[in-house]
Amino acid sequence: MQLSLLDIYNQMGNFAKGIVYVLAIMSIWTLSVAIKKWWDLRQAQGETRKFAPEFSQFLEEDNLGEAVTLADKYKKSHVARVLGGALTEIRPLIQDGSVTVGDINSAERAIEREMLMTITDLKRGLGVMATVGATAPFVGLLGTTMGIVNSFAAMAASGSGGLASISSGVSEALITTAFGLVVAIPAVWLFNYFQIKIDNLTAEMTYTSKEMIDYMIKNVTGTGEFGIALHPRVQHDGDSGQLTDLAVIPREGLSHVNVYW
Fold it and tell me: What is the per-residue pLDDT across 182-191, written as a single tens digit (0 to 9) for each?
């Protein structure tokens, strides 16, 4: 006699049905988080593709005001958030003609802070996928264990032996483990997929932030004004991470921010 999944479900006890309900909730939760995460990353990448060329053009024109406004416009772009934070930090100093090496270091720290917050936002929800992927098989196994215990208890109570007397109960028990694996496997796949995507976006932010700092270094003069570039002999001190040993050289033009995606 073959039993369908519906027949097995109807024969399940309350505990096994409770396990199925828990796994169903975990599956729905994972899928909802994955859909939202996919949409957010898609928007971030789409806005970055629009933001990058316009932002580079404004920098080439020394139009920092429009560059900051543009960064505020593309709020979902991870690159715009990072670069906009740096420009907001240093724009008043550039306009006042009082930019120093310390100010550039301050802008660099502002970029790092904004990157940290952006990466935290990008990773939000990954913990749900990781938790579901790691625990769903064990939740299913719990249902299986209790189902087998109930099968043997029923066999002892009836006084009959043999596989025929417990096969129905065992099949009922094993279905919860199978359901747990069905929930866990997609969760692990989705977690790994989004983790790789976020690693790529992090690389984009790191690359463009370094380009932004290079732009500031090359286009600030020894008196703190744009027009004569500071040429870094040694850009960063190995221990402190601060800019050191700068010499003034004529500027040959503005560099632009190349966005990697």
Answer: 999 999 999 9
